[in-house]
Write a structure and sequence with these properties.
The chain is of the alpha/beta class. The chain is 33% helix and 20% strand. The chain is globular.
Amino acid sequence: MRVAPSIIAANFAAFQKEIKRIEKAGADLLHLDVMDGVFVPNLTFGPIVVDAINAITDLELDTHLMIVNPENYLKQFIDAGADWISFHCEATKETDACLEYIQSRDKKAGLAINPSTPFAKIKQYVEKLDYLLIMTVNPGFYGQEFMSEVLNKVEQAKNYINEHKLSCLLEVDGGINYANACLVSQAGADIVVAGAGIFKQEDYTEAIERLRCSKV
C-alpha cells in the first residue's frame, strides 16, 4: 500500500521540519485536510497554506476538501499546488463538473464519502474517478476511533472496481494505525491515510513501513 501521512496531526510549530522528516521516512503522498467549519465542525487552512507547503516539499499533495460547494474553490487549490483533489459527494450537486474540471487541469480527481453514505450513492461516478476516498471516521477531527463497520463498504467498492476492470484507486482515511491497517489492506485499500498513527510515533520511518508492510 501507499501511505499518505496527514499533516493535520503534525507539530505546526515545526511545520517544515515535520514535512522533511516525513519525506525522509518514505511517505508516498502528503495528505492535506481542508475543513471549512460548515461541512465539518472544524477549521484548518486554505489555499495559502497549501501554497506554502508546496514550496517546501516535492511530495505530491493529496488534498481532501471537506468544504461545502467545492466547485467554487477548485481553481484556487490547484493553483496553490494540489496534485490530488478529493471532495465530498455530500457537499455538492456539481459532482460531474468538479471531476471534469480537476482532470482538465491534469490533476487526480477523487470523490470522498462519509461513513454513513452508502457505496450505491456514488457507484455511478467510480468509472470517472482517479481515486475513491472512503472515510472510516466522521470527518472533522483527527484521532477518532476507527469504524470497523465501514470495512464492508471498502470491500464492496474494491469488488466493483475489480469486476468492472476500472483504474480507480481506493484510499481509506480515519483512525488508521498498525493495529487496523492490515484489515484495511485486506479489504482492498491501495492507499491509507494516517495522522496520529504516524505523527504521534517516535520513529516516522518505522511507522510508515509498518503500515505499508501490513499487506498480507
